[in-house]
Amino acid sequence: MSNLEVRPAPSLCGGTGRTGPVRDVQPGKQVPLGESTVVRRLLPNLGRRMVGAWCFVDHYGPDDIVDEPGMQVPPHPHMGLQTVSWLREGEVLHRDSLGSLQTVRPRELGLMTSGRAIAHSEESPHGHGPFLHGAQLWVALPGAHRDTAPSFEHHTDLPVINGGGLSATVILGELAGATSPGTTYSPLVGADLTLTAGTDTRLPLDTDFEYAALTISGESEVDGVRLAPGSLLYLGCGRSELPLRADSDSSLLLLGGEPFEEQIVMWWNFIGRSQQDIEDARTDWTTGSRFGTVHGYDGDRLAAPELPPGPLKPRGRVR
């Protein structure tokens, strides 16, 4: 998925710093995406840029798209990151400059590693279902892997942990001994948690990870904090378990990972380490080099926004 803001601000992320357990509710903002989709952008936000290597989170829907085109994101570039497509309802057709053509459906992992350069498009296919609901997430690649060869993975059989009214699908990384088949380049986890009414349980965590939880549907309590849909709760580090309660059926995404020690610059759809990295990527996309061509999308590709007037400098992980 693309950041479609015409004047994207640089996100200056990474760096050292750990915090103990906290309960910090982070506000999101409404951002238009394509022709008919509005997303809730939960990361980066005013208080926090990253959770582990997770550096971008959009939550969208549930949207009634019976009489709408649904998601329509034209071809656009990525560099230095992985994109994670996760659906609760609907379908998204992925095309990329490697020649991949794949429809991603609910509870299937669409994982694209941009590495040094890739381009892709995302759209609701013809004859799509009535609703669209899901999340798009980015993972920053560490310096040793940011120039890796681009790739796309589609996994339909993901591990599920069940017990105590909780069902946890491990999207990426490892949780409670269950490991996703998706390729990772730093210690992290992403999981879809479904809580049935009356759930009162505890989920084991890695004390070296920092975590955040975002609500997908319904209301639930995470470590005693009641969360409405579209909220993100930053939980900090040092937790061995996470208390979860629900009075009605609800669902969450749990994101975590070792705090990302590197400093990065994130602008538009690129992650680099310097202004020159970003300028070079923008020039290559504009001139039609490096990123390749997405074939089969009915429309023009996205033009790169203008760079901001000030310098792009990597700074710490939090504002």
UniProtKB/TrEMBL annotation:
Q: Which positions fall inside the Pirin N-terminal domain?
A: 43-139
For this UniProt record, give its keywords in alphabetical order, as a comma-separated list. Answer: Iron, Metal-binding, Oxidoreductase
Query: What SUPFAM superfamilies does the record tag this protein with?
Result: RmlC-like cupins
Q: How is the cofactor bound?
A: Binds 1 Fe cation per subunit.
One GO molecular function term of this record is: metal ion binding
Q: Which residues lie within the region annotated Disordered? A: 1-30, 296-319
List the EC numbers from the record.
Answer: 1.13.11.24
Q: Which residues bind Fe cation?
A: H76, H78, H120, E122
Query: Which cofactors does this protein require?
Result: Fe cation
State the source organism's domain of life. Bacteria
Enzyme category, top tier: oxidoreductase
What InterPro entries does this protein's entry cite?
Answer: Pirin, Pirin_C_dom, Pirin_N_dom, RmlC-like_jellyroll, RmlC_Cupin_sf
Where the record annotates domain Pirin C-terminal, the positions are 191-290
Output the PANTHER family linked to this UniProt entry: PIRIN, PIRIN-RELATED
Which family is this protein grouped under? Belongs to the pirin family.
Name by which UniProt lists this protein: Pirin family protein
